């Protein structure tokens, strides 16, 4: 049975009363991350039997991937609608918190560059989130696969950059809430049938009150390589920490390289340092993915590098807002300020950009080696 809250009949279960009736996690009243009072929105419920049929009983053949939350399955509802099902691992404490966060948050968000949550399932010991299916998987699958990255020509990459920027702007300024995503990265940008970007995975997102510009946490979560320095080192997050992640992602998109260390001669450089060196030496075009050189106007390519460097500045105050970024991307006539040396400017930099952390305390960073750090 597929319950839609907007067509709710008297006595029909909704997410909130369903959870409370089953003595499950309480979603009502306060925002789970900030503790502030918010208006709850009801979420369509999909029963377990429907999802078992849709996914062929969660067949391994319908399991395209797995993350920290748990496995993801593709399926098809009786009405023919294709879906993606995120199934919470029963042993995942982190996943349980992310589940609550995503259900209470993403139901309030509607934007063409955000993934759409269709409903959820909470039955027996199962907790699942059901999304619209994205047939082209995630951005990293195309960007970092030598066999597929040629499918992303310059116009497509620029369109993806603009779409991600507009989606973040909506989260920061244009929705009813001020939302910090905290884990923007290539694998969390899904691509629809027409290769339009959809920001996904709001399990780590936080809400700031209207008068708050930043907040601090003792539990630093996210993905190394995309974290702003003030967040990675001190647990401080704001819209500017998302801007930093966007800058890293922008530089990855136009270079086709991950920010996990580039070996040049005897040095291992961060992608940010590599971009800075080439740009400051007037060799910015050498930073671009060779596969897009022929289709990329020189002025656009150099401008994107410039914007990316502005987004990854060491000091949060030196980074633009996403509204600034959208304007800068949309008009080549607007003069750009000169960037300083980016954050994490190093002589040797070793990291695994796809390794996430959920247990870092007091702003500490585990499993990362950074030597000779020389930020400005």
From TrEMBL:
PROSITE patterns: PROTEIN_KINASE_DOM, PROTEIN_KINASE_ST
Record has Kinase as a keyword: yes
Residues covered by region (Disordered): 354-376
UniProt-listed Enzyme Commission number(s): 2.7.11.1
Keyword Transferase: yes
Protein keywords: ATP-binding, Disulfide bond, Glycoprotein, Kinase, Nucleotide-binding, Serine/threonine-protein kinase, Signal, Transferase
Cited SMART domains: S_TKc
Catalytic activities: L-threonyl-[protein] + ATP = O-phospho-L-threonyl-[protein] + ADP + H(+); L-seryl-[protein] + ATP = O-phospho-L-seryl-[protein] + ADP + H(+)
GO molecular function: ATP binding; protein serine/threonine kinase activity
CDD domains, per the entry: STKc_IRAK
Domain Protein kinase residue range list: 58-334
Name of this chain's protein: non-specific serine/threonine protein kinase
Organism: Nelumbo nucifera (Sacred lotus)
Source organism phylogeny: Eukaryota, Viridiplantae, Streptophyta, Embryophyta, Tracheophyta
């Amino acid at each position: 049975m597929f319950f839609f809250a907007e067509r709710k009949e008297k006595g029909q279960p909704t997410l909130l009363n369903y959870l409370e009736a089953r003595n499950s996690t309480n979603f009502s009243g306060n925002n789970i991350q900030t503790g502030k009072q918010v208006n709850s929105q009801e979420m369509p419920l999909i029963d377990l039997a429907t999802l078992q049929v849709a996914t062929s009983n969660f067949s391994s053949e319908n399991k395209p991937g797995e993350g920290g939350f748990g496995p993801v399955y593709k399926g098809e509802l009786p009405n023919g609608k294709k879906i993606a099902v995120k199934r919470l691992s029963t042993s995942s404490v982190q996943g349980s918190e992310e589940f609550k966060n995503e259900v209470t948050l993403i139901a309030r968000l509607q934007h063409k560059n955000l993934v759409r949550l269709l409903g959820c399932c909470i039955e027996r010991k199962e907790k699942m989130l059901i999304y619209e299916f994205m047939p082209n998987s995630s951005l990293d699958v195309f960007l970092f696969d030598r066999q597929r990255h040629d499918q992303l020509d310059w116009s497509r990459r620029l369109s993806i950059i603009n779409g991600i920027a507009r989606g973040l702007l909506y989260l920061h300024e244009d929705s009813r809430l001020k939302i910090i995503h905290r884990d923007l990265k290539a694998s969390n940008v899904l691509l629809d049938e027409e290769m339009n970007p959809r920001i996904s995975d709001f399990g780590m997102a936080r809400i700031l009150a209207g008068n708050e510009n930043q907040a601090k946490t003792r539990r630093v979560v996210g993905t190394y390589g995309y974290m702003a320095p003030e967040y990675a080192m001190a647990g401080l997050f704001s819209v500017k920490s998302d801007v930093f992640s966007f800058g890293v992602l922008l530089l990855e998109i136009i270079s086709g390289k991950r920010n996990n260390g580039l070996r040049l001669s005897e040095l291992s450089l961060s992608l940010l340092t590599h971009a800075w060196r080439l740009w400051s030496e007037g060799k910015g075009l050498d930073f671009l993915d060779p596969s897009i050189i022929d289709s990329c106007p020189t002025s656009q390519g150099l401008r994107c590098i410039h914007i990316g460097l502005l987004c990854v500045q060491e000091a949060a105050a030196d980074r633009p807002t996403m509204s600034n970024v959208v304007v800068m991307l949309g008009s080549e006539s607007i003069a750009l300020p000169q960037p300083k040396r980016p954050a994490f400017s190093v002589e040797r930099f070793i990291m695994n950009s796809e390794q996430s952390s959920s247990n870092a305390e007091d702003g500490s960073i585990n499993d990362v080696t950074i030597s000779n750090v020389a930020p400005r």
